[in-house]
């Protein structure tokens, strides 16, 4: 849900500490949603963040943080993407990323002597530590290393909810308490179960450490982007000097030289001139005013090759400068920069939930109390059936431990983090996780034409002189281009660009005048047409003149191809006559110029790739039928909708979504303009080209950071793979519990094995998600 839709709302992101499982997520969300003024809240276990939407002015953020802390979790406002200390990436917020390994090693060091007798027993060795030695080794594991489980479990209990920590605390306390009771009432040390409680805590600590490491890898894409910010920028300052011998009040100062100061990036402002040396990161978004270089934008746009940039071109902060020194005028710095916006979009996508996560949250809300009930029933049932309190208690402990819902809570967010991260690396920003669930259903992709499949910039395709015997083509081209100098019209620019490519020498023109609705007129002062009044105009403006039919016949083949045609007319040697604003009878046609929109490189390959995926392709265009059909046939789309008004594009998408038979189709819309926004919003999956407008990108669930149609198939592929990982992870998470709980209740899993299986389930889920990091777009190779 984008912010533009909620003008009376404010959005915040909180870092939440202390969450351990899906039940924690549910608990924090419930606490947030109970706060007056909070309209929506989404908590993510993998990112350890909460995304909150509140009614503007209803409640202050410190109050929200305080209320979250009362539920037993840490909370603080997350740093904005653009404020992350120049080059310093955010680190994993979980404490296990820092001192977790030491706790794990200490836990296994203390637990090893306790577990050794069980390991050597199959080899024929029957040995165990004295009971009080076992007590001495297990106690620091239970109450020092394991204290965090008691603390978090108590807080969740006081809040009227349960979580993984409560299950671990109850299970290990039962095993430890039973062992202590047996130790104090009997001398039979082989009946003690201190090793079970110690190993369980050590295994859970190991699982949390492995989770933290895996989470860190899933967010590598964001950290790589955050590291692109240089710490300083070389800001140019002009120095002045007074004329020699003048006093302080006489003469005028003159610019002596440009010197730069190395300033922290936070002190750079829009409008500052920034000097960038070869090999340096560009610190700001801006426009080049001096220098030429090749810019590596791979981590920002996924573009595999450096892009040539010269004066007037825009550059993106975070890109790597190549071989040339540049001076750039800053346009956007910090949180306003493109890099910051990319990071924010990816972070928001990773914080949001896919709709399937709602089912997981519903299950998690009742999971812990259900497990505790099952553990009690297991204990009572085994006690009555086996008449053994110790065995009954151990099996109940095993149920509590195996059922910890860590894997369930991590299954969806871990896959989303990994999938959106690797997609961003290749220039595909998945902003709305809902598209992950819809992408595997897509059977139609609808393209806008102009700016999406075509460059959106006309070029001169055909140049036809009327009489080659009388006129030199180079003279005609040079004269026509000279008439257009200074014009901002796209066709004028196309004609000038073509003339430059043909190395035509432009000439001076006098009495230039734009004729609204007709064209441009002027008098060359040199060349073949010197002192002749010439006009470039549309053919329709010649209707009713003697030459109209002749010109129309020559232009018709170009019209049939959907091209725009202009004609150069010679109005005769009338430099001393007032320029007319209507067509004149003495006009002589000199040449025709046919203009068309150029296909983007890769448009045909993009359509071919989609067809290989079994997807039907259509093109929606406002152009005339001939022009649209020509483009559609050139790239091979299955169906063309032409002469579609912008307001009708959304209706076409709705028609595609439900065919005549009433069957549902899932449609993706690809566009780049303001007029595409309604269609992008109503499509099942909207993809916007970042080369287009901000409105289109806000309306779309996916933004393609390059104007490359080939990214469409790549975006669908990575979305499908991410969705498959979500399904696989949920299957394994539910399978571990579904199989593990009955096995533990029947005595096939000891508490120690249950703890190991629980840790293994979380590790498997995260490792499976990380396999997405091996994905590469197909068309790159």
From TrEMBL:
GO terms for biological process: copper ion homeostasis. It comes from the Bacteria. Pfam families: E1-E2_ATPase, HMA, Hydrolase. This is P-type Cu(2+) transporter. It is a multi-pass membrane protein. It catalyses: Cu(2+)(in) + ATP + H2O = Cu(2+)(out) + ADP + phosphate + H(+). SUPFAM superfamilies: Calcium ATPase, transduction domain A (SSF81653), Calcium ATPase, transmembrane domain M (SSF81665), HAD-like (SSF56784), HMA, heavy metal-associated domain (SSF55008), Metal cation-transporting ATPase, ATP-binding domain N (SSF81660). It comes from Polynucleobacter brandtiae. Residues 10-76 form the HMA domain. The keyword Zinc does not apply. Keywords: ATP-binding, Cell membrane, Membrane, Metal-binding, Nucleotide-binding, Translocase, Transmembrane, Transmembrane helix. InterPro entries: ATPase_P-typ_cyto_dom_N (IPR023299), ATPase_P-typ_P_site (IPR018303), ATPase_P-typ_TM_dom_sf (IPR023298), ATPase_P-typ_transduc_dom_A_sf (IPR008250), ATPase_P-type_domA (IPR059000), HAD-like_sf (IPR036412), HAD_sf (IPR023214), Heavy-metal-associated_CS (IPR017969). CDD domains: HMA, P-type_ATPase_Cu-like. The chain crosses the membrane at residues 104-125, 131-150, 162-186, 192-210, 363-386, 392-416, 730-749, 755-772. GO terms for cellular component: endomembrane system; plasma membrane. One of its GO terms (molecular function) is ATP binding. It is found in: Cell membrane; Endomembrane system. Its EC number is 7.2.2.9.
């Amino acid at each position: 849900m984008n912010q533009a839709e909620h003008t009376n709302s404010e959005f915040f992101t909180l870092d939440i500490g202390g969450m351990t499982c899906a039940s924690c997520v549910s608990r924090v969300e419930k606490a947030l949603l109970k706060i007056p003024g909070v309209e929506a809240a989404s908590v993510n276990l993998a990112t350890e963040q909460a995304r909150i939407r509140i009614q503007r002015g209803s409640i202050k953020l410190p109050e929200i943080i305080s209320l979250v802390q009362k539920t037993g979790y840490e909370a603080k406002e997350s740093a904005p993407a653009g404020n992350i200390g120049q080059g310093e990436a955010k680190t994993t917020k979980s404490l296990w990323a820092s001192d977790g390994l030491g706790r794990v090693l200490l836990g296994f060091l203390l637990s090893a002597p306790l577990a050794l007798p069980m390991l050597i027993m199959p080899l024929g060795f029957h040995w165990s530590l004295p009971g009080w030695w076992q007590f001495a080794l297990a106690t620091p594991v239970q109450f020092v290393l394991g204290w965090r489980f008691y603390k978090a479990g108590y807080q969740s209990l006081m809040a009227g909810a349960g979580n993984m920590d409560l299950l671990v605390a109850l299970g290990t306390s039962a095993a430890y308490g039973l062992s202590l009771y047996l130790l104090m009432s009997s001398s039979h040390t082989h009946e003690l179960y201190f090793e079970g409680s110690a190993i369980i805590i050590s295994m859970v600590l190991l699982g949390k450490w492995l989770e933290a490491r895996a989470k860190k890898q899933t967010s590598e894409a964001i950290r790589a982007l955050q590291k692109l910010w240089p710490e300083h920028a070389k800001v140019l300052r002009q120095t002045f000097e007074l004329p020699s011998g003048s006093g302080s009040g006489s003469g005028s100062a003159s610019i002596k030289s440009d010197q730069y100061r190395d300033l922290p990036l936070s002190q750079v402002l829009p409008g500052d001139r920034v000097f960038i040396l070869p090999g340096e990161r560009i610190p700001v978004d801006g426009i080049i005013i001096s220098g030429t270089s090749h810019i590596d934008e791979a981590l920002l746009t996924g573009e595999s090759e450096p892009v040539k940039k010269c004066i007037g071109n825009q550059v993106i902060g975070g890109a790597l400068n190549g071989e040339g020194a540049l001076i750039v005028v800053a346009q956007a710095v910090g949180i306003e920069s493109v890099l910051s916006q990319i990071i924010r979009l990816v972070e928001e996508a990773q914080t949001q939930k896919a709709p399937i996560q709602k089912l997981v949250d519903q299950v998690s809300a009742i999971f812990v109390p259900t497990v505790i009930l099952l553990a009690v029933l297991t204990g009572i049932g085994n006690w009555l059936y086996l008449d053994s309190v110790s065995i009954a208690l151990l099996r109940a402990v095993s149920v509590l431990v195996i059922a910890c819902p860590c894997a369930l809570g991590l299954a969806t967010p871990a896959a989303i983090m990994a999938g959106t991260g690797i997609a961003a690396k290749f220039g595909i920003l998945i902003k709305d996780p809902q598209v992950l669930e819809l992408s595997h259903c897509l059977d139609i992709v609808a393209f806008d034409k102009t700016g999406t499949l075509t460059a959106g910039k006309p070029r001169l395709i055909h140049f036809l002189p009327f009489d080659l015997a009388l006129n030199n083509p180079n003279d005609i081209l040079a004269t026509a281009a000279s008439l257009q100098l200074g014009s901002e019209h796209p066709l004028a620019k196309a004609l000038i660009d073509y003339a430059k490519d043909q190395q035509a020498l432009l000439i001076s023109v006098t009495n230039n005048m734009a004729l609204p609705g007709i064209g441009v007129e002027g008098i060359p002062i040199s060349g073949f047409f010197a002192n002749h009044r010439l006009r470039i105009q549309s053919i329709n403006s010649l209707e009713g003149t003697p030459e109209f039919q002749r010109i129309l016949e020559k232009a018709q083949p170009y019209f049939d191809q959907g091209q725009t045609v202009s004609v150069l007319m010679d109005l005769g040697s009338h430099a001393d006559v007032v320029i007319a604003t209507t067509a004149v009878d003495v006009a002589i046609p000199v040449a025709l110029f046919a203009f068309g929109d150029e296909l983007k490189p890769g448009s045909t390959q993009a359509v071919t790739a989609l067809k290989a995926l079994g997807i039907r392709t259509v093109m929606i265009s406002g152009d005339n039928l001939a022009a649209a059909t020509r483009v559609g046939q050139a790239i091979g789309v299955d169906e063309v909708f032409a002469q579609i008004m912008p307001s009708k594009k959304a209706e076409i998408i709705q028609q595609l979504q439900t065919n005549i038979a009433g069957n549902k189709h899932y449609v993706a819309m690809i566009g780049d303009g303001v007029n595409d926004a309604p269609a992008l919003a109503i499509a099942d999956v909207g993809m916007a080209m970042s080369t287009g407008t901000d409105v289109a990108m806000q309306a779309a669930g996916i933004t393609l950071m390059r104007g490359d149609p080939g990214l469409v198939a790549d975006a669908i592929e990575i979305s499908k793979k991410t969705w498959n990982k979500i399904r696989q992870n949920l299957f394994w998470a539910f399978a571990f519990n579904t199989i593990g709980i009955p096995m533990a209740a029947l005595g096939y899993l000891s508490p120690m094995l249950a703890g190991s299986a629980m840790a293994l389930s979380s590790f498997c889920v995260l490792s499976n998600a990380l396999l997405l990091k091996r994905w590469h777009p197909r068309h790159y190779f």
